[in-house]
Amino acid sequence: MLHWLWVLIVGAIIGAIAGALTKNGGSMGWISNILAGLIGSSLGEALLGTWGPQLAGMAIIPSIIGAVILVLIVSAILGRRAHA
């Protein structure tokens, strides 16, 4: 049970970092940060592997890179819908 709490906390932090790096963090809520962190972590580790330091079972650097990619893709899709 405690492991899942750490996974959610680390996912939220990764998502918040990705939002800050892409300048889209202000529009993301805490649930979006958690989702971006968890999904981005899976994406980053699938693309880049599990190298570097790990926390709560997530490789931090590939996870942040994956979350940044995810936030950029989602922002681009939502940006297009807002302009359409």
Helix content: over 70%
Category by helix and strand content? mainly alpha
Q: What is the total tally of β strands?
A: 2
The description of the largest β-sheet is: 2 strands, antiparallel
What's the shape? globular
Query: What kind of oligomer do you see?
Result: single chain
**Spatial gap, N to C terminus:** 44 Å
Mean model confidence by pLDDT = 86
Low-confidence blocks of residues: none
Organism: Ligilactobacillus murinus
Protein name: GlsB/YeaQ/YmgE family stress response membrane protein
Family: Belongs to the UPF0410 family.
Keywords: Cell membrane, Membrane, Transmembrane, Transmembrane helix
Structural key phrases:
two-stranded antiparallel sheet; globular; mainly alpha; 84 residues; transmembrane
